């Protein structure tokens, strides 16, 4: 399956016909607690990731949350 992740064409390795956002994050080694997902222009709530299907040619943005701050 071909999808666009953060603007880059990506071929998914999974042979499964049904790939959810959770399965995608697992395949790409993302920590689901540290990302926000946009699917075809819509932010998808994490509660829906186990049921939200990824389809051929979908556009997915994965935004990683980073902690940090000033030492002062």
Overview features:
72 residues, mainly beta, five-stranded mixed β-sheet, two-stranded antiparallel sheet, 1 helix, 7 strands, 36% strand, elongated
What is the rounded distance between the termini? 48 Å
What's the SSE pattern?
Answer: EEEHEEEE
* Beta-strand proportion: 35-45%
| Alpha-beta classification | mainly beta
Provide a brief overview of the structure.
10% of the residues lie in helices and 36% in strands. With 72 residues, the protein is mainly beta.
Produce the secondary structure layout.
Elements: E1 2-5, E2 8-11, E3 19-20, H1 21-27, E4 35-39, E5 42-44, E6 53-54, E7 59-64
Parallel strand pairs: 1-7
Antiparallel strand pairs: 1-2, 3-6, 4-5, 4-7
Describe this structure in words.
The chain is built from one helix and seven strands; from the N terminus they run βββαββββ. The chain has 72 residues and is mainly β. It has a five-stranded mixed sheet, with no helix packed on it. The chain has a two-stranded antiparallel ribbon with strand order 3-6. A hairpin with a 2-residue loop joins β1 (2-5) and β2. The longest helix is centred in the middle third of the chain and has 7 residues, at 21-27. The protein is elongated, with a radius of gyration of 13 Å. The mean pLDDT is 91.
